[in-house]
Design brief:
This protein has about 200 residues and is of the alpha+beta class. The chain contains 6 helices and 7 strands; from the N terminus they run αααββαβββββαα. The longest helix is centred in the N-terminal third of the chain and has 19 residues.
Length: about 200
Amino acid sequence: MDGRPLTITTSTVKVDISKRAELEAHYGMTPKEMFPKPKGASAEEFAEATFEAARKVFLKDGYHAHINFLLKKGVLVQLAESRIDDPGQKYLLSKKLGDHVRLSGADAVLLIDEIWTAPFDPAFPYRGAAEAPNRGEALAASLAQRDGDIVRWTAQIHRDGDKVTLGKTRRERGGAAFHFAHVYEAWGKEIPAAWRATGA
């Protein structure tokens, strides 16, 4: 940070239907294949299918944007892509996400993003993965549910020059996810004490 106040801007983007055939050819997927679960499927079913589609997008493009999917009764009601230039913006975006959840009535939020990974080093207990010298990368999805636990899907990213591959998808339930703190607040859901203990 350089002392300047942090700001975020939002804009509404309409989908250009004329580019549908071009995008289908690029990714090798139709919209139905990208979101294969029927309306009303559970949030976890939607998240799992969407992460599989995200793997294909990542392998084609070599990266994946930071995207939040807001769901209501298993139906996608809002999709928001964020571009983060400063770590401090993450707090503002988290707060804005809580506002969107409150206004839309969403009962689940799925975040798909690329993350840094690193094993815990007791010699540097407060060092984030991004600062670790032996850090790795992963494609990750985190699902917050008003009436359920945090669920995560991750796949390690392996780079060899311009070539990228992904490891096997791992699924975990529970754990801290402070990105969703304001989402929990919008739901009137208490942040678990275990989150505060990890500081993650």
